[in-house]
């Protein structure tokens, strides 16, 4: 009997590459495919990629070399975290030490993230001076994930310094800049990595109300960066202009932005926007249409939005309001700082002294200002279900498919589709991580 396969994700046989590597088949799993949990089908992979089993079976005349029994567990894509400042006592914004030491620190975080189901991430650098960017950014260039090196680095998320003093959060005001000289300000700030071909800077967070920033958004997008708006006192008109200009994300919704007001809802109000330009079906990096979208057939013109689902940064009721307003735009982020994975106590974030209390809340020491979180991606997924009563599929896609769509890499990440990278997890019914695979290799947890 020919192997079972979900034909909706299958590529034509004549497009399947020929490989000689070991073929592995996952059986008895409940797979997240086509926006549903699917039973009675299998997952095949070879050379770090998901493959079409019928092509292998009929064309290559090969049986699997290895069969892994999932024993009824959920089989889902690896989690993608687009905003994480550090973990395990390491801060990506810390430029002290030799490049060799910094690279070793980055690898420590990347390997440690596996235990939480995170198989790829955007290391985030908070507002810094040019000297820090010049030293740190070359170390954050994209690289594949592996058992040896850790979760895949997708490129850096640079959060600031083109952000608002009014909504500075834990960022150092003395580093802040405007774009009064246009793109020259950005090039001067970030240095060569802003223009290189390595794709070092994957996401950039800016405040759209700052002088010159909105005019630079199209050029930043042209350079293949995802522009996100946040740490901002922007009015709704400025926010919508930024979205129309190419910004496709909101950085940690509700945090470090103007509070919602019925006369001018600020950035939060973008979730209710009704007159943004509707993308064409071919447009990438926009959310899929949902029940609340203006067009049922075209991508949603509203941006994705990151949400820190720890119950501290955002009240569960607010998470639920955002989800019901724009379900296909939700992206779960940790915004974790160096205290993630460490016990409560004093730590550092971008040179700032912070304290983690017994409830896992992170504050600038001596103040009540939140300074990032210490939550993990697996906990975010569980909380999202708890806070919103969404389906397990929706929660999982907010940590997998949606961030991949935002970054324009949904052909490689965020799904179990043929041709994608074989980064996946085995989860129990309560969404606890049981086994982790990256590039088709199992990680020893």
**Total number of beta strands:** 25
At the fourth level of CATH, the homologous superfamily of the largest domain is Metal-dependent hydrolases
User: What is CATH's topology name of the largest domain?
Assistant: TIM Barrel
**Alpha plus pi helix count:** 10
Proportion of residues in extended strands: 15-25%
Which architecture of the largest domain does the CATH hierarchy give at level 2?
Alpha-Beta Barrel
GO molecular function, one term: metal ion binding
Binding site for Zn(2+): 159, 231, 252
Enzyme class: hydrolase
Domain Amidohydrolase-related: 74-443
Describe this structure in words.
Residues 74-443 form the Amidohydrolase-related domain. Residues 272-300 are annotated as: Disordered. The chain has helices at 53-59, 99-112, 130-136, 183-190, 213-222, 236-244, 316-325, 377-388, 392-398, 401-407, and strands at residues 23-27, 30-33, 36-38, 43-46, 49-50, 66-69, 74-77, 79-84, 86-87, 90-91, 118-126, 152-153, 156-159, 201-206, 226-229, 249-250, 304-308, 330-333, 345-349, 352-356, 361-364, 370-373, 424-427, 433-438, 441-443. 20% of the residues lie in helices and 23% in strands. Helix 8 (377-388) crosses helix 9 (392-398). The strands form 5 sheets. Strands 8, 11, 12, 13, 14, 15, 16, 17 and 18 form a 9-stranded parallel sheet that branches. It has a 6-stranded mixed sheet with strand order 3-2-7-23-24-25, with no helix packed on it. The chain has a 4-stranded mixed sheet with strand order 5-4-1-6, with no helix packed on it. With 445 residues, the protein is α/β, with parallel strands linked by helices. It folds into 2 domains: 7-77 and 419-443, Urease, subunit C, domain 1, CATH 2.30.40.10; 79-407, TIM Barrel (Alpha-Beta Barrel).
């Amino acid at each position: 009997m020919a192997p079972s396969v979900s034909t909706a994700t299958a590529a034509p046989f004549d497009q399947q590459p020929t490989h000689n590597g070991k073929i592995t088949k996952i059986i008895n799993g409940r797979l997240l495919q086509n926006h549903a949990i699917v039973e009675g089908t299998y997952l095949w992979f070879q050379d770090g990629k998901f493959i079409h089993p019928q092509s292998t079976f009929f064309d290559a005349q090969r049986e699997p070399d290895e069969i892994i029994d999932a024993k009824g567990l959920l089989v889902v894509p690896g989690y993608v975290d687009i905003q994480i400042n550090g973990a395990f006592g390491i801060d990506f914004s810390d430029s002290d030490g030799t490049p060799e030491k910094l690279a070793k620190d980055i690898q420590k975080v990347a390997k440690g993230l596996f235990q939480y189901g995170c198989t790829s991430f955007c290391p985030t650098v908070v507002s810094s001076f040019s000297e820090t960017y010049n030293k740190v950014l070359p170390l954050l260039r994209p690289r594949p994930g592996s058992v040896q090196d850790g979760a895949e680095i997708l490129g850096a998320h640079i959060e600031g310094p083109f952000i608002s003093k009014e909504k500075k959060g834990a960022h150092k005001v003395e580093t802040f800049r405007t774009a009064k000289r246009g793109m020259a300000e950005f090039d001067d700030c970030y240095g060569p990595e802003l223009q290189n071909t390595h794709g070092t800077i994957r996401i950039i967070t800016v405040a759209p109300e700052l002088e010159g920033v909105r005019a630079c958004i199209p050029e930043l997008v042209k350079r293949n960066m995802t522009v996100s708006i946040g740490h901002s006192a922007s009015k709704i008109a400025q926010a919508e202009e930024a979205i129309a200009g190419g910004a496709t994300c909101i950085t940690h919704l509700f945090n470090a932005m103007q509070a919602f007001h019925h006369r001018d809802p600020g950035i939060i109000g973008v979730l209710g926007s009704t007159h943004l330009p509707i993308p064409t079906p071919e447009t990438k990096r926009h959310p899929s249409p949902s029940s609340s979208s203006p067009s049922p057939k075209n991508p949603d013109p509203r941006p994705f939005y990151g949400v820190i689902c720890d119950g501290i940064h955002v009240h569960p009721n607010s998470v639920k309001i955002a989800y019901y307003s724009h379900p296909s735009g939700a992206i779960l982020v940790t915004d974790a700082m160096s205290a993630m994975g460490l016990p409560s106590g004093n730590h550092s974030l971008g040179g700032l002294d912070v304290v983690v209390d017994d409830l896992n809340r992170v504050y600038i020491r001596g103040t009540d200002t939140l300074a990032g979180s210490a939550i993990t991606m697996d906990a975010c997924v569980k909380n999202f279900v708890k806070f919103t009563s969404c389906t397990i599929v929706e929660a999982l896609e907010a940590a997998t498919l949606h961030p991949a769509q935002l970054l324009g890499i949904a052909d490689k990440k965020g799904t179990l589709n043929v041709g994608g990278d074989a980064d996946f997890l085995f989860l129990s019914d309560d969404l606890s991580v049981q086994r982790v695979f990256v590039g088709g290799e199992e990680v020893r947890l």
